[in-house]
Amino acid sequence: MGEREMKREWQADRKISGLGLMVLPTGVRTYYVRYREPSGKQQTHKIGRAEVVSLTMAREEAIKILAAVAKGEAPGTDKQLLRQGKTITELAELVKDKHYAKHVRASTATGYEVLWRRHILPQIGAEKVATLQAMQVMDMIEELPRGQQNRALAVLRKAMNLAELWGIRAKGTNPCKGIQANTERKRRRYLTRDELKRLLAALNAFAEAGVRWRFAQLVRLLLVTGCRIRELMCARWQWIDLELAVLKVPAEAHKTGQDGDERKVHLPPAAVAVLEQLRRRSNSEWVIAGDDDGHLVGYWRMWDDLLAAAGIRNLRVHDLRHNFASLGVSAGLSLPQIGGLLGHASPQTTQRYAHLIDEAAAAAAAKVAALVA
Question: Is 34 helix (H, G, I), strand (E, B) or coil?
């Protein structure tokens, strides 16, 4: 039993559903197999001319094709994707525009984009999305600083999942799947008293004007507020009330604003003094203005220069936040108080500083015992 389609005759096979022989008015006979994609769209795949492909051969090939379709591996997908030729760089732009812009908090998206720009794209940006292999991903990961390896792997894994979803890579072929993440040890780095003294001296001599001077003021603010760097680097003057000594970070601009709540940072006198200097010396809407009309963006070279001037090694900008917490413990603050100052959404996050409180308590107990002994 056949059906007429534009003067062509489709002769369906009685054993294999989807297999059929297309007979043209010219007499040419060709085997095809029809199937539906997961989206519901019907596809027709050519098997071969009847004069060179027997019915048995056509059935065997149809079974293979239908089995591949059932596993999400549509025939010809790789060839189609190769013709499209999307590169990893182009994929990164798609992810930024179609995913980050709609589904990822702005501050988080900025961090992801830094990973792409500094670590992923320099190594594999020119590779094709459709043909990127697990070994290439592993080679890339091995070249990265250890602290960035897991983050880069997670970002690339998500991008490859999206590539499959968007039809620019064959389904079920994510090259990041199965690659083991490194076990990361929680890093605790605090400034010694001598290091803090040298850092402050280096800040005083760092620069007298321009973006380097503004970066030095940013570091001062980090030291005395415990803020995340992006909370200050992306801050606008409209967020700050100098009279009330308060910085109000909108929910979309801070890491723990998932509930839509702004983060209120109480500014100590030292922070207010720095902000007043910045206000007097800038007409920008940004607290930490960059070289152009935007806020400061790249600071890594200036940070390296500052550490070199202070003679300090192995210190990250984020460690200043940990240092603020450790000073809070030394001042006798409780974990909930420290969590409030740092803007932690969960008490579990603040638990990383519990050992500092234990150490302070032990030292206090030793002092009392020394008076008795």
Answer: strand
Separation between Cα atoms, residue 240 and residue 294, nearest integer Å = 18
Quick check: pTM over 0.85?
Answer: no
Cα–Cα distance measured from residue 44 to residue 31, given in angstroms and rounded to the nearest whole number: 10
Contact 58, 19 (CB under 8 A): yes
| Same structural domain, 344 and 198 | yes
Contact by Cβ (8 Å): 72, 161: no
CA distance from start to end of the chain: 105
Same domain membership, residue 228 and residue 285: yes
Q: Quote the CA–CA distance of 326 and 70 in Å, as a whole number.
A: 57
Whether 245 and 308 share a structural domain: yes
Q: Quote the domain boundaries for residue 16.
A: 2-75
Residues 312, 262, single domain; the answer is yes
Per-residue pLDDT, 1? 38
**How far, in Å, CA of 168 to CA of 87, rounded?**
10
Q: Three-state DSSP class for 240?
A: strand
Q: What is the mean pLDDT of the chain?
A: 81
Torsion sign across C-alpha atoms 119, 125, 127, 129: positive
**Per-residue burial over 203-220, b = 16 or more CB atoms within 10 Å of its CB, e = otherwise:** beebbeeebebbbbbbbb
326 and 350 fall within a common domain = yes
Rounded distance, CA 55 to CA 66, Å?
Answer: 16
Position 351 scores a pLDDT of 55
Q: How many domains does the chain have?
A: 3
Q: Are residues 343 and 269 in the same domain?
A: yes
φ, ψ for residue 334 (rounded to 5)? -85, 165
pLDDT at 345: 59
Burial category of 199 from C-beta neighbours within 10 Å (exposed 0-12, middle 13-18, buried 19 and up): buried
- pLDDT tens column, 124-149: 998 889 888 888 898 888 888 877 88
